[in-house]
Automatic annotation (TrEMBL):
One of its GO terms (cellular component) is plasma membrane. It holds the Pfam family DUF5600. Residues 444-532 form the EH domain. GO terms for biological process: endocytosis; endosomal transport. CDD domains: EH (cd00052), EHD (cd09913). It is found in: Cell membrane; Endosome membrane. Residues 476-511 form the EF-hand domain. This is EH domain-containing protein 3. Its main location: membrane. GO terms for molecular function: ATP binding; calcium ion binding; GTP binding.
Length: 535
């Protein structure tokens, strides 16, 4: 009696307690989502069951592109070190999937050995057979970059006549398997080869539902002039727009990702800024890894729920004795209508449903009578997980992020631009004059002094109202001018002397030239007479 009350009380008394996000994800998957997946044969239609290694593994970056777009060179550039099995050339050289991972001893582990290692997240690749496993290896080496992330190098996607030769395994399906488990997918394009072949188009479509993970790199951009680069960039965006059906524009990074001199150095600053943005994106992966796994589990749970409704609906429509085959054909052909009915009855978004054509093909090989009817207890358990347990894990995610705020990728190319004169923006904008003995503002101070003495200074200082009349001539917003005032008014007396006024004008010039203002005034910009004033 009052069993619903008892259930609610038990929830309050005995909530799920997780020590770490990883442990929580494992427990939720095994106890709440996996039973639903197994009951409705989810793994035969969509994705193999997840294992502990899928939750414990480091963030992974998947590189995809046509041959000779610089995928292997990109990895070499990041690591600043050769890795086992590496081959670089203008012809299709990488004919295997290479998982580049950290290991104390340098060496190669073949695919058949990889898929039986419980510590590696590749056991379920066994389903793709020997044709694939003979083309899959793990390159292990001690490298600081690989302590934080792993990188998956893929075979170059073929074009023209070559793409008609079968690989012996479902290439797009393998990439889709990796796409579900990686943290970032980088599509590489060569500035000279923008044509998207049929195989590449098929691959990009296989990455559907993972658009949030995709980044695009327009590589070898130093080999063309600025005017051509603009046209190439426009052509690439047009081509991607035809294949990637999203209203948002995919982020494209332009550069030359190898350690050779730039052939045409005109766009060096652009390449440096783009590289810095891409590096920041990759460096953030370890910090966001737990959130990504949580997000992927939620996506998987939503798909598993929809799959359960589809399978149970088909089972319900099937006759128990006569006319099974005809009814099966009829149901498969009207699968779109069944989707629409489920969508209406259960208020499910159309975007949560699997591809109709793919589902129709898969259903042909199954006996619909062996499907299971709707079991609400399993669905309620998953709903409970999404409504309560996931919220608790979100809190734990934030706690872990707070405890490890500096969890970023280090080493290799990531260290080359961190500090020193080759750091991005060093000696530019507010950083100009950082290494000079003289105060950098002194160069233009005579010009600023002329303006200063027209503003009726009293006791060597101009009031805020008078300074404002001059500063607003820059046409910068009040929010920006307010920040400049705070930086320039070093003694915080609400007025500016000649040095502070010169500094304010220097910062206005910095902003007008397109640079960002510093949050705190750098020591080299503090006027010489104020350098002993404690901040």
């Amino acid at each position: 009696m009052f069993s619903w009350l008892g259930t609610d009380d038990r929830r309050k008394k005995d909530p799920e307690v997780f020590q770490t996000v990883s442990d929580g994800l494992k427990k939720l998957y095994k106890t709440k989502l996996l039973p639903l997946e197994e009951h409705y044969k989810f793994h035969e239609f969509h994705s193999p069951a997840l294992e502990d290694a899928d939750f414990d593994n480091k963030p992974m970056v998947l590189l995809v592109g046509q041959y000779s777009t610089g995928k292997t060179s990109f990895i070499r550039y990041l690591l600043e070190q050769d890795f086992p099995g590496m081959r670089i050339g203008p012809e299709p050289t990488t004919d295997s999937f290479i998982a580049v991972m950290h290991g104390e001893v340098e060496g190669l582990v073949p695919g058949n050995a990889l898929v039986v290692d419980p510590k590696k997240p590749f056991r379920k690749l066994n389903a793709f057979g020997n044709a694939f496993l003979n083309r899959f290896v793990c390159a292990q080496l001690p490298n600081p970059v690989l302590e934080s992330i792993s990188v998956i190098d893929t075979p170059g996607i073929l074009s023209g006549e070559k793409q008609r030769i079968s690989r012996g395994y479902d290439f797009a399906a393998v990439l889709e398997w990796f796409a579900e488990r990686v943290d970032r997918i980088i599509l590489l394009f060569d500035a000279h080869k923008l044509d998207i072949s049929d195989e590449f188009s098929e691959v990009i479509k296989a990455l559907k539902n993972h658009e949030d993970k995709i980044r695009v790199v327009l590589n070898k951009a130093d080999q063309i002039e600025t005017q051509q680069l603009m046209r190439v960039y426009g052509a690439l965006m047009w081509s991607l727009g035809k294949i990637v059906n999203t209203p948002e524009v995919i982020r494209v990074y332009i550069g030359s990702f190898w350690s050779h001199p730039l052939l045409i150095p005109d766009n060096r600053k652009l390449f440096e800024a783009e590289e810095q943005d891409l590096f920041k994106d990759i460096q953030s992966l370890p910090r966001n890894a737990a959130l990504r796994k949580l997000n992927d589990l939620i996506k998987r749970a939503r798909l598993a729920k929809v799959h359960a409704y589809i399978i149970s609906s088909l089972k319900k429509e099937m006759p128990s004795v006569f006319g099974k085959e005809n009814k099966k054909k009829e149901l498969i052909n009207s699968l779109g209508d069944i989707y629409a009915r489920i969508e209406r009855e259960h208020q499910i978004s159309p975007g949560d449903f699997p591809n109709v054509k793919k589902m129709q093909e898969q259903l042909q090989a199954h006996d619909l009578n062996k499907f299971q009817p709707l079991k609400m207890k399993l669905l309620d358990t998953v709903d409970d997980m999404l409504a309560h347990d996931i919220a608790q894990l979100m809190v734990l995610v934030r706690q872990e992020e707070t405890q490890r705020p500096n969890q970023v990728v280090k080493g290799g190319a990531f260290d080359g631009t961190m500090n020193g004169p080759f750091g991005h923006g060093y000696g530019e904008g507010a950083g100009e004059g950082i290494d000079e003995v003289e105060w950098v503002v002194a160069r233009d101070k005579p010009m600023y002094d002329e303006i200063f003495y027209t503003l009726s200074p009293v006791n060597g200082k101009v009031t805020g109202a008078n300074a404002k009349k001059e500063m607003v001539k820059s046409k910068l917003p009040n929010t920006v001018l307010g920040k400049i005032w705070k930086l320039a008014d070093i003694d915080k007396d609400g007025m500016l002397d000649d040095e502070e006024f010169a500094l304010a004008n220097h910062l206005i010039k910095v902003k007008l030239e397109g640079h960002e203002l510093p949050s705190d005034l750098p020591p080299h910009l503090v006027p010489p007479s104020k350098r002993k004033i404690p901040e």
